[in-house]
Amino acid sequence: MQPASDRSSHDLDPLERQVVAVFVDGVRVLGLPRSIGEIYGLLFISRSPLSLDDLVLRLNISKGSASQGLRLLKSLGAVIEANGSSGGTERRTYYEPAVELKRLVGGFIREQIRPHLESGKTKINQLVARVREVEDAETRKFLSERVDRLGHWMRSGGKILPILQKILGQ
Amino acid sequence: MQPASDRSSHDLDPLERQVVAVFVDGVRVLGLPRSIGEIYGLLFISRSPLSLDDLVLRLNISKGSASQGLRLLKSLGAVIEANGSSGGTERRTYYEPAVELKRLVGGFIREQIRPHLESGKTKINQLVARVREVEDAETRKFLSERVDRLGHWMRSGGKILPILQKILGQ
DNA sequence: AATTTTGTTCAAATTGATTTGAACAATCGG
DNA sequence: CCGATTGTTCAAATCAATTTGAACAAAATT
Q: In what order do the strands lie in the sheet with B79-82?
């Protein structure tokens, strides 16, 4: 049962609240649900790792939300399990935030962006095929130009990701 | 009353449908509503500019949606009003897509990203102020480190945007 | 083996964002 | 001036995504 500073205070203090708000806002821009921002935000500003129960208690969210939120954050590589420190026979797992921007960006790109680019590529190939079957030459030319452009955008998107990562990796 | 190819066919043909689907998908990643993708998608694959009524008719969306969607797209610089071509006394306005990636990305950054970065900067300054008032030196140091990091992320974000634009500008 | 603790799953409820459609304004043509 | 056309606005309805919470599983403790 960890030394536990004062795990019993429920509500966030003003500073914590404000940090959480920043992350809630941040993740919305990325199209992720609010609970993700809350969980990551609280972990980010907490001095010690927190358990699922801590999150439920302090953020007033359900166990379900916390569990699902942690799962997503783990898949993004944005939180990691703080391994049970000393030899204590501790069953509960505690979580820490990953705080290197590189890691966060990398995880996001891998999980949320790449898959869309992949499936986009496929769809565009289908489009190319369809355009080939258009009768009217003028129209076909026009459509071809547009679809090519679309393909070009995708490729640009793909090329930019590694550059992004390199720059944010410092 | 524009030569009008055959403005009367309601439903999208398979190719149009598929292009629209690609854009609907695309804009979701950007956190924009589906109607935005539909409208832009149809404009993108149409040989001639379309009016609001055309969009309502072909996409089966309400006038309200079309109007609001066009407003957003215009604010992003993603569609432009096709000026009334020949001297015809045409009241209705027709819309064309902007198809240069540079323009699209620029508009999106300006309208959807920058404002968040701005307000984020403000919030972080408030955080810095609050952290200064924390009593315990150890804790203050920790919080300070985290908040600084947050500020650093923001600045990285800000720096990356022009680079993005430059690269996507060709 | 029964009980407690920790965590996951998923159908249903909730919430928040989008879409609708009716009312309205503005402009044109007769 | 009057009716028709084009487009906007916004409250209410709809819809999709998130969150909840009850049921369950697994592991530990008694």
A: B50-51, B94-97, B79-82
